[in-house]
């Protein structure tokens, strides 16, 4: 798509957004179970409290819609909700509203980019039906609470872009349903626990922009368990990693995207690298590699992005 086409499509989208205030006539839709008002322009308007009377709703998406003010507690009356997304608005709340913790049937909860602060609230610990939890792009500044590791149904966990500190407990291995874990852009440190390697359903590990200060070979060896069979995305960039790459890299045969840039990894690139035939994106830039590129690099026929700068 050309820049001109992109600009035209974006302008069309921008002009098509709804604005103003929501009309209470929505309450006449007695059987409505799905309501998506995302990516509109309700700027300078709070979420209307009457939405809390739409008891048939099972899915409510109010994300990136320009809502302001306080999130109305009446939304806590929507006991049938399975999906709630209020990401990317401009609320006055600095804490996650406590009424959310009473929505015990929720399967998907998205609270990204709302500038919530403080520790990850303990009220979330009873929401064990969750499969999708997105708390990214807030200002949470605690460690990752131990109770979160007991969410055995959780498939997608995004805690990226906060100020989380401390280490990751080996109890993360209890997240046996996990498909994607994103802990990037935090202040986490220590070592990545070996129990990550036992998460057999995991396809994405995104832990960049932290302070692991660990040998890369140790991490790859710990991930060489059953997780290596399905892992498609591994992002360890900007993580203060060091040491040499060993042949463990070759066991991740389903990797599609691999990011190791901006660490202190040194030595040659192992020949087993050529086994990663599914790779489309590879970034090893800003490290301290030596030697020559493996001859079998040419076997990676699916590569579309490659950086060794």
From TrEMBL:
<dbReference type="InterPro" id="IPR032675">
    <property type="entry name" value="LRR_dom_sf"/>
</dbReference>
<keyword id="KW-0472">Membrane</keyword>
<dbReference type="InterPro" id="IPR001611">
    <property type="entry name" value="Leu-rich_rpt"/>
</dbReference>
<keyword id="KW-0677">Repeat</keyword>
<keyword id="KW-0732">Signal</keyword>
<keyword id="KW-0547">Nucleotide-binding</keyword>
<dbReference type="InterPro" id="IPR051420">
    <property type="entry name" value="Ser_Thr_Kinases_DiverseReg"/>
</dbReference>
<keyword id="KW-0433">Leucine-rich repeat</keyword>
<dbReference type="GO" id="GO:0004674">
    <property type="term" value="F:protein serine/threonine kinase activity"/>
</dbReference>
<dbReference type="InterPro" id="IPR003591">
    <property type="entry name" value="Leu-rich_rpt_typical-subtyp"/>
</dbReference>
<dbReference type="InterPro" id="IPR055414">
    <property type="entry name" value="LRR_R13L4/SHOC2-like"/>
</dbReference>
<keyword id="KW-1003">Cell membrane</keyword>
<dbReference type="GO" id="GO:0005886">
    <property type="term" value="C:plasma membrane"/>
</dbReference>
<dbReference type="GO" id="GO:0005524">
    <property type="term" value="F:ATP binding"/>
</dbReference>
<keyword id="KW-0723">Serine/threonine-protein kinase</keyword>
<dbReference type="Pfam" id="PF23598">
    <property type="entry name" value="LRR_14"/>
</dbReference>
<feature type="domain" description="Disease resistance R13L4/SHOC-2-like LRR">
    <location>
        <begin position="21"/>
        <end position="139"/>
    </location>
</feature>
<dbReference type="Pfam" id="PF00560">
    <property type="entry name" value="LRR_1"/>
</dbReference>
<keyword id="KW-0325">Glycoprotein</keyword>
<keyword id="KW-0418">Kinase</keyword>
<keyword id="KW-0067">ATP-binding</keyword>
<keyword id="KW-0808">Transferase</keyword>
<protein>
    <recommendedName>
        <fullName>non-specific serine/threonine protein kinase</fullName>
        <ecNumber>2.7.11.1</ecNumber>
    </recommendedName>
</protein>
